[in-house]
Amino acid sequence: MHGLVPTRVFFTKGVGRHREKLQSLELALREAGIEKYNLVKVSSIFPPKCKIVTKKITNPLVRPGQVVHCVLSENCTNEPHRMISASIGLAVPAEAAHYGYLSEHHGFGESEEKAGDYAEDLAATMLATTLGIGFDPEKNYDERKQIYRMSGKIVKSRSITQTARGDKKGLWTTVIAVAVLLP
């Protein structure tokens, strides 16, 4: 990393179930393919000029045990059938030298689409307010999304979401969505 500013990011998600809460998190990390890293949670800035890459590209870049920064959304339950979600939203500015936003959202009773839209909306709204884009916060996200895009200042927004229902026998169920920041 140049001055600890990441140059690449990849997105991943996972779900785990186990009688132990910690082990259910470990299984979610394994499904996401990031269990071998020492994860450090950071806040919500998407670095300027950061490139979105696939998880496969990272294998030679990160070694087991390496400290890796991430924006992590996590949720868990041991209530049978309870719907849980974890989502990461992203908003990228049109100006590559400007920073964007990552957001994390975790909820209960939300569909994948609803949780993903909410996380994407959070990131886009944070970026829009930073860039001075005028909008009515009472309008629904689809209407605001059109305003953001039409402004020409926000070029891309998206989300990654993991949902699951609590295990029917009461095992701990953990869901994660993660933006992993790399050198």
Q: For the report, how would you describe the main beta sheet?
A: 5 strands, mixed
Helix content: 10-25%
Could you spell the SSE succession in H and E letters?
EHEEEEEEHHEE
Number of domains: 1
Q: In the CATH hierarchy, what is the architecture at level 2?
A: 3-Layer(bba) Sandwich
Q: State the total count of DSSP E strands.
A: 9
Q: How widely separated are the two ends?
A: 4 Å
Radius of gyration: 17 Å
Q: For the record, what CATH class applies? A: Alpha Beta
* SS strand fraction: 35-45%
Category by helix and strand content: alpha+beta
Widest sheet, order of strands: 2-5-9-1-4
Concise overview:
The chain has 3 helices and 9 strands; from the N terminus they run E-H-E-E-E-E-E-E-H-H-E-E.
SSE layout:
Blueprint lengths: L7 E11 L2 H12 L5 E4 L3 E2 L4 E2 L14 E11 L5 E11 L6 E9 L3 H20 L9 H11 L2 E12 L6 E11 L1
Parallel strand pairs: 1-4, 2-5
Antiparallel strand pairs: 1-9, 3-7, 5-9, 6-7, 6-8
Q: Explain this structure to me?
A:
There is one protein chain. This protein is of the alpha+beta class and 183 residues long. It has a single domain (8-182), classed as Pyruvoyl-Dependent Histidine Decarboxylase, subunit B (Pyruvoyl-Dependent Histidine Decarboxylase, Chain B, 3-Layer(bba) Sandwich), CATH 3.50.20.10. The chain has helices at 21-32, 112-131, 141-151, and strands spanning 8-18, 38-41, 45-46, 51-52, 67-77, 83-93, 100-108, 154-165, 172-182. The chain is built from three helices and nine strands; from the N terminus they run E-H-E-E-E-E-E-E-H-H-E-E. A five-stranded mixed β-sheet has the order 2-5-9-1-4. A four-stranded antiparallel β-sheet has the order 3-7-6-8, with helices on one face.
